[in-house]
Amino acid sequence: MRIAETVTFGGSGLDRAGRLRGDAASLARLLAGDCVLPIWRGRPLCAEEGALGWLPPGHPVLAGAEEPIFLGLDGEAPRFAADISHWSPEAGAEAVQGGFFDPGFQSHPALPGAPGFGDLRGLMLALSPREAELAATAKALVQWHRSHRFCSTCGAPSAPSEGGWHRRCTACGAQHFPRTDPVVIMLVTHGNRALVGRSPGWPEGVYSCLAGFVEPGETIEAAVRREVMEEAGVTVGPVRYLASQPWPFPASLMMGCHGIALTDVITLDPVELEDARWITREEMVTVMAGRHPEVRPARKGAIAHFLISNWLADRLD
Hints:
Layout: H1 24-30, E1 36-40, E2 43-48, E3 51-52, E4 69-74, E5 77-83, E6 105-106, E7 116-118, H2 120-123, H3 129-147, E8 158-161, E9 166-169, E10 175-176, E11 181-190, E12 193-198, E13 210-213, H4 220-232, E14 236-247, E15 252-261, E16 275-280, H5 281-288, H6 303-312
Parallel strand pairs: 1-5, 11-15
Antiparallel strand pairs: 1-2, 2-3, 2-7, 4-5, 6-7, 8-9, 9-10, 11-12, 11-13, 12-16, 14-15
């Protein structure tokens, strides 16, 4: 797909500078100026609408944070991230509510002029491609460190190394690396129609492409066919890869594919899907415009929205 890397979170060409990760002295020299992005409970700091908030390493917001994670070089500017999830708003202070998506910002008393910490789902379209990639990388790495503090080999505590791109067991020396979960997400078509579904718990009326995790020993194509059959009872024949998207909720690589359905009778797995339906191109135009009486489109910025939009525009090649 010629425009594959225009998807949100992809294609900015960030220099991840892997050559510097093992050079502690160089990283220490780079850790200066406004170069650290605080992440609070999965939410990056915003300096203003459409811009991330980068702080100097000695800023009060970063007090108590672990050693910053090196994200790479934005041109000549070093970029780091720090987890400040240990911070709690003062009693009586307004706090974000969480849930599927919370559009609000969590303010911080040491940042009176900034909007605060925002949900990346709501911020992603306002950020530049470079800042979107940096935010996605930061969020995924911070989450990995929080969930992998102990060695999976012996159970002892592990410690960050290699600029935050590695953890080493303090007892047995086992090495652990950041995890990314492969997920297939598929635009399944049958003639002039596309298959969409909605999972239990999604916002009312929201439908999207079907998706699922790739299992061990499975190809991308096989995963597409299996997931569509398991969730909707539809047989898929030819499958081709289109585009991918890093999706930091918490750390997946969404591999977008186009599958041609050989059958069109839907048999739902109610555990996975609350509903699924075929929608014609003409009807999908109404959905994407927000004028359909029953169906709301996938979130803008998500690869599902990207795939459906480009199907409508005949740009899947």
